[in-house]
Amino acid sequence: MHEMPIVLNVVRSMDVYAQKNHIPDIKVVVVDIGEASSVVPFFFRSCWDPAVGQSYHLQNAALEINEIPCKAKCRKCGAEFRPGRSDAGCPECGYKGWNLISGRDISIKEILVE
Fold first, then answer.
1. What is the pLDDT of residue 64?
2. pTM of the complete model
3. Distance from C-alpha of 103 to C-alpha of 63, rounded to nearest angstrom
4. CATH topology of domain 3-69+103-113
């Protein structure tokens, strides 16, 4: 399970942010997880409580996860679409060359503080 180091990185980042900005407690952390990021939201969530237990600023912080779907852009016609399989072609022109333009990132979207 590779989610634990990622969760720990999020927690450390939030601790540094809280300390620099004199925030005593972070109540909620909202994280965007892309469908193609290789991070499984269930496992990310299961690592959350043990990770925040070691944090000063996130002791009771809740976690909200937004799952971001994949979006691709055809290199031939420019159509944007949600890819199915990695070998699927563009639904507009059938061309099999496309670039993933969203859905691979993990990011802290927002936090709620007192």
1. 98
2. 0.84
3. 19
4. hypothetical protein PF0899 fold (3.30.2320)
